[in-house]
């Protein structure tokens, strides 16, 4: 008999490894809010244990975790409707991750492009945690039997690995226990690119601040970054095919479409034949209108760290209660004795 849950349950996480970017917002958080609004059970996590797979200054990590929580709430996540918590407060994630370390194969992890990119040339110097990052991510998801995971395009490979781990566990132990989780990768901004290089994703850890829009940027900073964004001298074409060899231009069109809740083609219908001298100020205006209220609310909420910690603690308690029976059953399936009361 199937033990896998099929009632929809959404899980996703973001690393508190720096400030939130427009990429995180459009690719992930906005989708998180939409799923909350659909009335589905939603868990959203500040994945602080993922963040420490690369060095984090401790005081900065604490601050970034609280800022991320503030960003979630400022963008519309409501702690009474979504479970908001930080990963390290629910030990079931780490406990499940160990089991998955014993299910996943070295070869699977070695093929992960995020590891290759983040470890760079000196792989020997990367932390074991960075290598094992995807097994912890699989644990984050499967310890809740989450059925749907809204993420940006860059996380697709890790989601596929999560399914591989679930399938191998089910196969090895002859059970139908873990669901094969679906990634939810939708919209015009599943991959927001750097403002300096249209072939690289916008990232909070990019050394150049001009490459990204931070959710805490003020109106002047947003406008300046868009004004200075790399583009070309050509006018915008009539169809998206005309942007195939123009990654920077395509990126700005996609960002506009996502912010305006429309399609990239609709943006071209409006701006075809116009140059960036016209398009960029309009994009800046739109970005400021959309982001300024979130930024102001985020700064306000971050001013009360005690309140944020209380919300994270309550969220962690609710999350732990959901994870506990799934972890207990996993231990039982694997043959680990768990007789201490929890
Ligand atoms: N540029 C992006 N476009 C669309 N979605 C994006 N996401 C990140 N960047 C983009 C989505 O945001 C969620 C959280 O990502 P994360 O912080 O856990 O890790 P990441 O993907 O590695 O994000 P960053 O900004 O690049 O962080 P650093 O620099 O610390 O590695 C995910 O759903 C991701 O898809």
Key structural traits:
single chain; 342 residues; mainly alpha; Rossmann fold; Tyrosyl-Transfer RNA Synthetase; 3-stranded parallel β-sheet; two-stranded parallel ribbon; 13 helices; 5 strands; 52% helix; globular; binds adenosine-5'-tetraphosphate
CATH topology of the largest domain: Rossmann fold
The major sheet is characterized as: 3 strands, parallel
The distinct bound ligands, ions and cofactors come out as: adenosine-5'-tetraphosphate
Distance, first to last CA? 27 Å
**Main sheet: strand order:** 1-2-3
Tally of separate domains: 2
- Taken as a percent bin, the fraction of beta residues is 5-15%
Considering the protein shown, what is the CATH homologous superfamily of the largest domain? HUPs
Q: What's the order of the H and E elements? A: EHEHHEHHHHEHEHHHHH
Structural class: mainly alpha
Number of strands: 5
Description:
The structure is a single chain. By secondary structure, this protein is mainly alpha-helical. It folds into two domains: 9-190 and 304-334, Rossmann fold (3-Layer(aba) Sandwich); 209-300, Orthogonal Bundle (Tyrosyl-Transfer RNA Synthetase), CATH 1.10.240. Helices cover 52% and strands 7% of the residues. The chain has helices at residues 22-37, 48-51, 58-74, 92-101, 106-110, 113-119, 128-142, 156-172, 219-228, 247-259, 264-271, 276-302, 305-334; strands at residues 9-14, 41-46, 82-86, 148-150, 182-184. It has a three-stranded parallel sheet. A two-stranded parallel sheet has the order 4-5. Helix 3 (58-74) crosses helix 12 (276-302), helix 4 crosses helix 13 (305-334) and helix 10 packs across helix 12. The two termini are 27 Å apart. The model has no long low-confidence stretch (mean pLDDT 94). The chain binds adenosine-5'-tetraphosphate. Adenosine-5'-tetraphosphate (AQP) is lined by residues 14-15, 17-18, 21, 23-24, 27-28, 151-152, 154-155, 189-192, 201-205. Adenosine-5'-tetraphosphate binds next to helix 1.
